[in-house]
User: Which sequence fits this backbone?
């Protein structure tokens, strides 16, 4: 699933659409009454992307695990949309200068200015780890409110802090020397601050595929050469990789 850094790159890709006029909008093949509206802003927040229009309408997209999008020339977009099954064309924006197509997105929500659900999904999220304002102490306090939960689950809880996904969960826990199964109550405030600070640092750098532990089942640890372990943890379960030596169970560093 795309994580917070990927959604910010999406927003950069979509930034040139700001100021363009909409000629056609469809969601899963159904035309929406938004022709003539102008895009005012494209805003990332955690794993969500919102597109604000000049009449107050807000479009919110959550790509999910399989979702993706492309910005392509306007004419090509019309042809592609014509060939695509309605179920896969989650959202299509045909603009004056380009087309933007989302496929297999988990969520597409269109809310008018005074819509009852407008902004509620984003409002329910914790602070964006990649936001302009970052307060590690605040995030640690929010995590501290869940003392019996394992830290691997808390890092993924978007209601506590938005943007961290499974890749950065795994990499952050390894680099901070914390066993994923450790309950929050067993961690100090400084450790919690360090975890969120490290997650932010990694997300600012961006995933480059050369991971320390993520996806490296039973391969040697790059630090100590111990064989990495993998377990299915959480609800819903997520694959979690760890080094038994660098992330010792029951030990606080």
Assistant:
């Amino acid at each position: 699933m795309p994580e917070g850094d990927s959604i910010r790159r999406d927003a950069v890709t979509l930034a040139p659409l700001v100021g363009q006029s909409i000629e056609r909008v469809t969601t899963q093949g159904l035309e929406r009454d938004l022709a003539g509206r102008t895009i005012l802003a494209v805003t990332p927040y955690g794993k969500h992307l919102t597109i604000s229009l000049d009449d107050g309408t807000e479009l919110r997209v959550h790509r999910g695990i399989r979702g993706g999008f492309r910005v392509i020339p306007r004419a090509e977009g019309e042809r592609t949309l014509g060939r695509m099954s309605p179920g896969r064309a989650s959202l299509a924006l045909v603009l004056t200068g380009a087309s933007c197509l989302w496929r297999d997105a988990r969520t597409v929500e269109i809310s008018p200015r005074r819509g009852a659900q407008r902004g509620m999904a984003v409002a329910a999220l914790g602070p964006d780890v990649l936001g302009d304002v970052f307060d590690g102490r605040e995030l640690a306090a929010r995590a501290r409110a869940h003392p019996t939960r394992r830290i691997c689950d808390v890092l993924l809880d978007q209601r506590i802090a938005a943007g961290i996904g499974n890749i950065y969960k795994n990499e952050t826990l390894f680099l901070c020397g914390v066993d994923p199964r450790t309950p929050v109550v067993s961690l100090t405030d400084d450790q919690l601050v360090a975890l969120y600070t490290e997650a932010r640092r990694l997300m600012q750098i961006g995933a480059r595929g050369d991971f320390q532990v993520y996806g490296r089942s039973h391969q040697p640890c790059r630090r100590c050469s111990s064989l990495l372990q993998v377990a299915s943890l959480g609800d819903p379960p997520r694959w979690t990789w760890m080094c038994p030596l660098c992330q010792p169970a029951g030990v606080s560093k």
